[in-house]
Amino acid sequence: MTSGTEVGRCEVTGQALAELLAERDIRNQIHNYARAQDRFDTDLFLSVCHPDCVIDYGGKGGPDKSSPREAIEIFNNGHTRFASHLHFVSNITIKVVGDRAVSETYVHAVLRTHEDEDGKSTNLHARGRYLDRWSRRDGRWAMDQRLLVHELTWRDEAVDGRRGGQGGPTRDRDDPVYAAFAALDGATA
Q1: Which pTM was predicted?
Q2: How far apart are CA 50 and CA 46, in angstroms?
């Protein structure tokens, strides 16, 4: 159950349920990391990491052995150079042992440049894998270490420079996603 190698075999035990819940919590944190970058949400980003977490992008356009606060400042400052960006995560593999875990996550970031004097922009694509260490402290799963393994990077011409619609995306807490989730606050089932 914990390694992903025993596909199709699962015995429902307290340990299996605890591992599934841990995997869910870690997966949510992986998604929160990407969302925090795209929304410039410093508080959400910091909630993904333990305060002593080390984030290492190996000098490839991101933080190099930085604290969570240093890392989000680097991301926020760097992403302002772009008109928009989205971070996609997939192929998440998680192994849980007690209050510790490791994960591998594929990431594809697309960053669109601002239009140049001719009205053209380009998309920068960066693909890689996050190799993470996690721990549960005081009942909360958060990241202890992240290493980005770079795989591919390329640029292409942006075919359609238009963004948004229906209120449009924003890179802050005014983005429509916050209102969507807040609509459930206080709701009863």
Answers
A1: 0.83
A2: 8
